[in-house]
């Protein structure tokens, strides 16, 4: 008898659940059908692809800007008539960039003008003909207000060009 009751209970449950599913969301289904009946999907066409055209690299004979061989003195492809002397011994103030040097004093030794330059808290005495800075700068004039240098700078084409630079006298206002 318990099997029979179980079968009857299951049948009633299936009929109850079956009746709930049909008409409950009918208005929502109808609205969806009306809203989407005129819609059509459109995708824009893809842009036309142009074929790849290879370009030959013809700069094999030019100076490579990423190699240190550009600064090699044996490389005289550029030059422009100017070339620094790579074989001379370097002077002490050539180890410093010109921007880090300070002209702090001026004096005469006989008839020769000398400048006093401060580099890393040490003083150096310079005269016309001495080298300073990292661009092969040679001192061409010293007076009470400035030290004038002629520098040799290499351009991107490999040519060496002259550039005039100067160090201005630095006034110290210590009050001592």
UniProtKB/TrEMBL annotation:
One Pfam entry name = PilP
What is the protein's species of origin?
A: Azospira oryzae
Spell out the protein name for this chain: Type IV pilus assembly protein PilP
């Amino acid at each position: 008898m318990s099997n029979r009751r179980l079968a009857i209970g299951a049948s009633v449950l299936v009929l109850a659940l079956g009746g709930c599913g049909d008409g409950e969301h009918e208005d929502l289904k109808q609205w969806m059908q009306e809203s989407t009946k005129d819609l059509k999907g459109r995708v824009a066409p893809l842009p036309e692809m142009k074929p790849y055209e290879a370009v030959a690299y013809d700069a094999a004979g030019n100076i490579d800007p990423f190699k240190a061989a550009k600064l090699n003195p044996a490389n005289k492809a550029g030059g422009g008539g100017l070339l620094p002397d790579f074989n001379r011994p370097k002077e002490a103030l050539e180890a410093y960039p010109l921007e880090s040097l300070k002209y702090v004093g001026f004096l005469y030794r006989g008839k020769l003008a000398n400048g006093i330059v401060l580099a890393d808290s040490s003083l150096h005495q310079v005269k016309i003909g001495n080298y300073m800075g990292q661009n092969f700068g040679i001192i061409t004039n010293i007076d009470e207000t400035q030290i004038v240098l002629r520098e040799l700078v290499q351009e991107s084409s490999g040519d060496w060009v002259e550039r005039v630079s100067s160090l201005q006298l630095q006034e110290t206002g210590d009050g001592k």
